[in-house]
Amino acid sequence: MWGILASVVGGLGLFLLGMTMMTDGLRLAAGPALERILAAATRTRLHALGSGVLVTSLVQSSSAVTVATIGFVNAGLLPLGPALWVLFGANVGTTMTGWIVALVGLKFKIEALALPLLGLGVVMQLTGQGHRRGALGSALAGFGLLFMGIAMLQQSFTGLAGEVTLPQGEGVLAVAAQVGVGALMTVLMQSSSASMAIALTAAQEGLLTPQGAAAVVIGSNVGTTVTAVLATLGATANARRAAAAHVLFNGITGAVALLLLPWLVPAIATAREVLDLPADPAAKLALFHTIFNVMGVLLMWPIASHLALWLQQRFRAREEDEAQPQHLDDNVLAVPSLALDALDLEVARMGHVGVRLARAVLHGAPVEALARDHYIVNQLDAAAESFVERMNRTAMSQRTSERLALVLRVQRYHQTMAQRAIDAAPLVALVALADTRSVALHAAFVQQTDALLALCDPLDNTPSPALLSAHAQAMELAYQDLKAALLAAGAQGQLRLVAMEDTLRRLSALRHAAQQAVKARTRRAQGSGVVDDDAALAPNEESQP
Q1: What is the DSSP string of 35-52?
Q2: Which of 34, 225, 256, 318 could potentially form a cystine with 247 if both were Cys, beta carbons 3.0 to 4.6 Å apart?
Q3: Which among 507, 505, 513, 348 is positioned nearest to 419, based on CA atoms?
Q4: Residue 163: is it exposed, middle or buried by C-beta count within 10 angstroms (0-12/13-18/19+)?
Q5: What is the pLDDT of residues 65-107, one digit of tens each?
């Protein structure tokens, strides 16, 4: 008995390891292609649904597609409405695992296929590390391990047939127990595909009746909602909305399927005969799994728009707190390019608050009124740094690494801008004590600097390099004229030297803050492909006051 259980655990381990290697390998091999497919193919609900089905069928992991979808929602590239249909399609696409197990995994001597795949995949992985060939090799090796795990599970269940009795019967309690077994297996193994493989092999070996196996499949679908909920602990509001849609889809579909279960199983048997599929239980169960999820899509079709609107009104408390990151979700870390999109959006939010802070200081806001914005900038900066540390644990391409360096530079510019504004806040511009010309020049400097900072707001504008450069030059000229006037007023005794020094230090700090804002805006435009040079950088930006 213990030997059989050890074989079950070992087979399950091979299956899960194979699924992980295959998913990671295909995701890395696809690279940005996964993003392009999802971004370009969600124009309508049918396109979005088809994208979810197709991509999940290819990578054999609804989790990978869910992560990518949440990443697009967080990055503002995919509205919640189309994202729901990608998630629903992922539920349908994941049924491909059942067909692989039923029509391939249980029909052949798997070792004959698995071992060559494993050997070829390892060779490709070892000779192509860091290249697409290596990622494809990892996927092939994972596919081989997956088949070996299925073979070991099949052999183990053959031995368990006379030793173990799974919940049987068609009563309410029996069906509830079968659903519970399916959900528990998915929660423990964190894989509905593994639960599906176990249910198929158990049904094939006679440990479960067709209806009992169908109840286990329903339970495994419901069990995935626990994983989704756990994945959103501490996540952003958009991630929790997507997870809520996933929970509702599986919960509603599971409830309806359970109510119709006594009629669905005979209908599946009839459909199998019409489609001329094999008569074994595994094929029936794979067909049930597909029909069950397609039925869920049909149930959601008329209510999806209302569901999206309802979800938009939920989970708003944390998002309303500006100091709380809105885009940094650990669910996107598995896809570095998506994580970078999320980081870029969060750094832009940080820059928006930093510009607001600098403009408030420019117009003479008291230090006490600036504390909130300063706190927000520091919190977002710390959150971004922590997110980058977690990003660095994931392999990323050279292009992504270079773009990450650019985003980090922009982040540092925003932080310096905010700090220089805070440095200027307690210093008072005593221009009124000088001559009237200095007062007029100070008003011109404030006006030019404010206009420049408004252009640099990363959430409000995408100015042309020429416009940004013109405003930067106008601000610099206004600063130099005002500086010369104040120095002259100090030299002539019209302004005390201490007052002159404090005023110049304040103006210099504000000038430096504006220059940092210009640099951040220019560098971010470079990262987006808007400009390719430093033409918009403020002149003499590194000069001393």
Answers
A1: HHHHHHT-SSHHHHHHHH
A2: 225
A3: 513
A4: exposed
A5: 665 666 566 555 567 788 888 888 888 887 776 676 666 554 4
